[in-house]
Structure formats: structure tokens, C-alpha cells
Write a structure and sequence with these properties.
Layout lengths: L1 H16 L5 H6 L6 E2 L8 E11 L4 H14 L4 E10 L2 E11 L4
Parallel strand pairs: 1-3
Antiparallel strand pairs: 2-4, 3-4
Length: about 100
């Protein structure tokens, strides 16, 4: 039973990690939110630092929300290279917070 739950959780995280917020949805937000991505972007940016979160809850949205909140606190536009793993009953999410460079 535990193995089925874990496999289901990994499947949900894999699907959820492929999602990013579409630009048109971002425009509707009053406050611009950091975009989460498992891949790099084709824009110049400055690396602000690593963001991570540990949870004993199997809800991927909780991990996404925490990563986004930490990145936004640092002034980030994106969280890149997000990875998930589990160890000792916890689920971890990590990524790199970046700020897009301004066009001059």
C-alpha cells in the first residue's frame, strides 16, 4: 500500500513539475509571481540563490507554494531546475532562484 502511494505521489510530482504559469495568467495577478520550471530559460539572468523546502505532506502544491514564496522574498522572477526527492519520510523540493536582467 505504501509503495502504491509513493509511486502515485512521484507521478503527481512529475506531472506538476512540468507545469509553469502561462504569461497571460501572470498578467491577471496584481502581484507578479515567480515562475517555477524544471528547465533553464533562454534569457539572461542573475542567480540569487538556492531555495528548498522539506515537507512530510504529499501535496505538491504545498512544495510549489513554499518554493515560490521563498524565491519571491529574495526578489526572484523564476525558480529554475526544480527537483524533487524523498528521504526518511520527507519530500524535498529544491531549485535556483533567479532575477531576469533588465534590457538596457
Amino acid at each position: 500500500m505504501t509503495k502504491k502511494i509513493f509511486i502515485s505521489f512521484i507521478a503527481v510530482l512529475t506531472i506538476a513539475s512540468c507545469l509553469t504559469i502561462p504569461p497571460e495568467a501572470e498578467a491577471k495577478d496584481k502581484k507578479k509571481r515567480a515562475v517555477l520550471s524544471t528547465v533553464d530559460i533562454n534569457e539572461d539572468y542573475d542567480i540569487l540563490g538556492l531555495v528548498s523546502y522539506r515537507s512530510n505532506d504529499l501535496d505538491p502544491e504545498k512544495i510549489h507554494s513554499a518554493l515560490r514564496k521563498k524565491a519571491e522574498k529574495m526578489g526572484a522572477d523564476h525558480v529554475l531546475g526544480i527537483r524533487y526527492y524523498s528521504n526518511a519520510g520527507y519530500v524535498y523540493g529544491t531549485g535556483t532562484a533567479v532575477k531576469l536582467k533588465e534590457d538596457k
